[in-house]
Amino acid sequence: MIIGLVGLGLIGGSYAKAIKKYTDHTVYGFNRSVGVIRQAQEAGVIDGVLDDGNIGNCDMVIISIYPTDAIEFILSHASRFKKGAVITDACGTKRRICSEVEKASMDNGFYFIGGHPMAGIEKSGFEASFPEMFGDASLILTPYQWTPQEAVDVTADLARELGFGKVKISNPQEHDEMISYTSQLPHVLSCAFIGSELAEKFDGFSAGSFQDMARVAKLNEVMWSELFIENREYLCREIDGMLERLSQLSTQIRLADREKLRESLRKSRETKERIDGK
């Protein structure tokens, strides 16, 4: 299979390195930075530069750039994609991109399948990418109802070749609702947590819980602000729910209401134990 990669940052670079390490597929890569393309070539993880001349030869194109840029790329290259090719992405929200490229997909004969690899680290760029990035991670796919099963299977098969531990088939609405809680809300909370004036004085006073809470505040503010705003309906609902639960805990602590506080903490512990048991 010939695979085109658009964007060779943390995720796109990891795709390139994983494909070359674990498969025999041919890889063409594109990045706005010529320096990054040169790095990828020197590392031997792309077989050539992806351009308008060869993108039509690709059986699959994986787009790992910001959501707005990804939409623009797909629409501007729609007529160049190979008929029957699978075009997928790595964006953190799915409703907008799946909605805006569906017509182009149908009109031009390619199959767009929304994708979201649930993997990442607190660094960015090609230098930080590595082939084991996707090991045991989940890949969420959001195909259209009319997408052929064969196209979904090809995408899922490649994911398993690259080490993904699970392929979750979903839809754009379910994806964005769940991601608002499992991914975006933790990033919001981490940013709020590290905003305390005590954060600068943590040395010697912290253990694992501080690191757990603060870890994902080290984020790419350009990308995450776009994701937050695109998914603001679901995300703000989760933030409001969190504020309500925090207010309840704050009241219980302020009033020294041991019975209600213990009950709240017990319910939280039991929920976590129930989740861990799944």
From TrEMBL:
Q: Where is the Prephenate/arogenate dehydrogenase domain?
A: 1-278
- Protein's UniProt keywords contain Hydrolase: no
Keywords of the record: Oxidoreductase
Q: Does the keyword Transport apply?
A: no
Kindly list the biological process annotations in GO that this record carries: tyrosine biosynthetic process
Q: Which GO terms describe its molecular function?
A: NAD+ binding; prephenate dehydrogenase (NAD+) activity; prephenate dehydrogenase (NADP+) activity
The pathway this protein participates in, as annotated, is:
Amino-acid biosynthesis
Domain of life, per lineage: Bacteria
User: Per UniProt, what is one Pfam family of this protein?
Assistant: PDH_N
The family line of this record is: Belongs to the prephenate/arogenate dehydrogenase family.
Q: What PANTHER family would the database entry show?
A: PREPHENATE DEHYDROGENASE, PREPHENATE DEHYDROGENASE [NADP(+)]
By what name is this protein known? Prephenate dehydrogenase
Organism (species): Parasporobacterium paucivorans DSM 15970
